[in-house]
Amino acid sequence: MDLQSLSTPALILDKGIVERNTARMSARMTKHGVGLRPHLKTAKSARVAELATAGHSGGITVSTLAEADYFGENGFDDITYAVCIVPGKLSQAAALIAGGTDLKILVDSIDTAKFIAAYDHDIRFKVLIEIDCGDARTGLLPEAPELIDIGTILNDAQNCDLQGVLTHGGHSYLATSIDGIKQAAKEERTAVLRAAERLIAAGFPCPVVSAGSTPTAMHGESYDGITEMRPGVFVFFDLDQLARNACTREDLALSVLASVIGHNKHIGHITIDAGALALSKDISATANWPHVGYGSLCDPETMAPLENLHVAKVSQEHGVIPVTDDTAYDRLPIGSMVRVLPNHACITAAGYPCYNVVEGTQVVDQWDRVNGW
Amino acid sequence: MDLQSLSTPALILDKGIVERNTARMSARMTKHGVGLRPHLKTAKSARVAELATAGHSGGITVSTLAEADYFGENGFDDITYAVCIVPGKLSQAAALIAGGTDLKILVDSIDTAKFIAAYDHDIRFKVLIEIDCGDARTGLLPEAPELIDIGTILNDAQNCDLQGVLTHGGHSYLATSIDGIKQAAKEERTAVLRAAERLIAAGFPCPVVSAGSTPTAMHGESYDGITEMRPGVFVFFDLDQLARNACTREDLALSVLASVIGHNKHIGHITIDAGALALSKDISATANWPHVGYGSLCDPETMAPLENLHVAKVSQEHGVIPVTDDTAYDRLPIGSMVRVLPNHACITAAGYPCYNVVEGTQVVDQWDRVNGW
Predict the structure, then answer these.
(1) d(CA A264, CA B329)
(2) Contact list, A259 vs chain B (CB under 8 Å)
(3) Can you give the pLDDT at residue A338?
(4) Which has fewest Cβ within 10 Å: A126, B174, B254, B294?
């Protein structure tokens, strides 16, 4: 089927690009001698997971237990749930483990560690301790006394296997240059290795030393001592990654197909049928590129940039494209289509139940996604 | 079931509040002698549609053809699709009409009007012309020459019933006072009446004079000449409406239930398991209330505000709540729950497949939603 036969808005995934992006990351991690446990929070798709895990152990990372459930059903049994678990979700985790999933859970607090240790002793929980390497979101500082306290609780518990430490160099997203990303990657590695060293020095096991973000996995200089990296958005990339030079334009695999619904010449804009729900309200790339707005426009077939055209405003189902040169109305007649490059692939994709997978201008497949919790 | 037995994040709808909000709007429109055709783009729920249409004709407004399909299947046959149609969607619209839905479609361009007029003559399309009353998004200015051109095309077409004019006073969302909303309501009415007057003067039928937004429906002083109003977010309201005084805090029907997953004391914040996907990245209320962030926190049972606590940052599955007073850690232990009031109900709700409907702290029902396109 031709791309332009799709009803709009529609989520489009370029098969060749996602294959290239995943193969490159796999090769890069192999070259550096570090395992790849891709974070599937971006793609939430078993078909993408097959590509992203090729050449490595098959282990994956997820951000929700709904993802763990879906990927388990799709044959991915080795899963790290990389958000600190709360007591209320332990029963769901236990059900997944009882069902055969090799699930690793995450903690960064004594309270949660105690709760796990006191939980049903018929289930064995594999547990990682989260480390804050500079991201300043969650996790313990590598020198925090609680690291050893939690290690002790988990190591002493009859129902826990202490697996090691996990960190996320999310502060690499704040870097605006490759050098800045390299520095974040160094901090990520230093922090997680120091935490592992402290656990081992205290006599605890630490087989897993897990790190990663797409920028640090793409540009880090050394992964020595790290057992696995967990990049996510590298499968698709997006304008936010491009704006910080973490990828090239040719690496952008995801776009939204939209139709031109109006020429509002008295205002000076074109409207398309991709608004806040089709694109999301994420404008992260505008921190570096103010004129990207809610997404930049491309020719629907060649993906050539439609210069100076971007989605400047959104309402629920409308995207508004300012027109500074009236020839834009001729280039984009009502009913014609465009493709919009989103700011943040993870957030935009979450508005859709599936990917329309294209090779060139032909839709060759539909790949499902798991949304929600 | 008790509210706190739900897995988080979860979308919570207070039944008593949505009943009160819908009854009030119904009574207000009846008192003003104007029809109510609620815009279901906010709720996307047949159960909410039943409440919102009570006391009026049963006609509804939708923003996607997926909504039209869903509501048609749920017994709502009189539907206005209030986004200008593109040629590529006419076959979907025709299928709905052939299936028995009394669908009204919208145009604001000569090109689309011609396309409809040239379409399959076995289907009759009921068509409205969109007017720009100051919203500056879509529609023709009331004095635009194209209004009569489009009227002529549709009136001459063998497959069209020209139904009249439709406008959306969306610029009322920019008002920061009730007086400002009243002014927008006056502009909305003046513009759509003028367009209707011109169509009638040209000898065309104009049985429908449709207007509306929640602020203008709540605070307009006269609807004389308008046949129907199409407010949407009034069913739930949200922080964005509250911040512009379009409702009171007691009118906020929608919230997100979340769990505390971390006390990150070395950074000075609490994390919850409601991030960008659970809350959306909409921060519209911050234009008036900078300290609302991605949502403000409430006690999960009483809905009393947790003073000074709001979601300042989000990543995909994390919400970050800055702590300025250390007693917050005691008030919100790890594993405890909060409810987050969202900025924009329409966008936040779109992340969920259903509402958990509560009376007080008891979950009494689950109402489905239709998402996507």
Answers:
(1) 52
(2) 86, 88-89
(3) 98
(4) B174
Nearest-by-Cβ selection for A89 from B7, B144, B281: B7
Residue of chain B whose alpha carbon sits nearest to that of A282: B281
* Confidence band for A245, pLDDT divided at 50, 70 and 90: confident
Q: Encoding tokens for residue B326?
A: 């250390």
Which residues in chain B have their CB less than 8 angstroms from residue A278's CB? 373
The Cα–Cα gap between A169 and A102 comes to 25
Residue B323 clears pLDDT 90, i.e. is over it? yes
Distance (Å) from the C-alpha of residue A335 to the closest C-alpha of chain B? Answer: 5
Tell me A300's DSSP state: T
Pick left, alpha or beta for residue B302 (phi over 0 → left; psi -120 to 50 → alpha; otherwise beta). Answer: alpha
Q: Which of A86, A138, A261 sits opposite B335 (nearest CB)?
A: A86
Compare CB distances from A108 to B140, B262, B277 and report the shortest one's residue.
Answer: B262
Q: Is the peptide bond before B300 cis (omega within 30 degrees of 0)?
A: no
Superfamily of domain A16-236: Alanine racemase (3.20.20.10)
Q: Which two three-digit tokens encode residue B29?
A: 């429109």
Mean predicted confidence (pLDDT) in A134-154:
97
Judge whether A38 and A231 are in contact, CB under 8 Å: yes
Distance from CA of A180 to the nearest CA of B (A): 21
pLDDT band at residue B19 using 50, 70 and 90 as cut-offs? very high
* Chain A contact set for B10 (CB, 8 A): 373
Across A259-263, A282-286, B37-41, B176-180, least confident range: B176-180
> Which residues in chain B are closer than 8 Å to A281, comparing Cβ atoms?
280-283, 347
**What is the pLDDT, as a whole number, of residue A334?**
97
Cross-chain Cβ contact A89/B266 below 8 Å? no
Q: Most B CBs within 10 Å: which of A41, A259, A281, as the mutation test of the B interface?
A: A281
Give the gap in angstroms from C-alpha B363 to the nearest C-alpha of chain A. 17
- Whether A9 sits inside 8 A of B373 (CB atoms) is yes
Q: Is the pLDDT of residue B119 over 90?
A: yes
Residue B120 has pLDDT above 90, yes or no: no
Write down the pLDDT at residue A244. Answer: 85
Distances (CA, A) of B315 to A53, A60, A136, A182, B148: 24, 19, 12, 22, 50
Whether the Cβ atoms of residue A168 and residue A212 lie closer than 8 Å to each other: yes
Instruction: Give the closest of B86, B280, B346 to A261, CB-based.
Output: B86
Chain Cα centroid distance, residue A283: 16
CB atoms within 10 A of CB A7: 16
**CA–CA min distance B207, chain A (Å):** 25
Q: What percent of chain B has pLDDT over 70?
A: 100
In CATH, what is the architecture of B15-236? Alpha-Beta Barrel (3.20)
Burial of B68 per CB tally in 10 Å (0-12, 13-18, 19+): buried
Residue B261 with chain A: CB contacts under 8 Å:
83-86, 138
**B134-157, pLDDT tens digit by residue?**
999 999 999 999 999 999 999 999
Q: Between chain A and chain B, how many beta carbons pairs sit less than 8 Å apart?
A: 165
Nearest partner of A336 among A266, A246, A271, judged by Cα: A271
Q: Which residue has the tokens 């097959």?
A: A50
Distance (Å) from the alpha carbon of B226 to chain A's nearest alpha carbon: 24
Q: For chain B, give every domain's residue range.
A: 3-10+247-368, 15-236
Mean pLDDT for all residues in chain A: 97
What CA–CA distances, in Å, run from B227 to A20, A55, B224, B230? Answer: 57, 65, 8, 10
Could you tell me which CATH class the domain B3-10+247-368 is placed in? mainly beta
Q: So what's the pLDDT on residue A163?
A: 98
Of A41, A115, A335, the CB nearest to B86: A335
CB A88 to CB B7 under 8 A?
yes
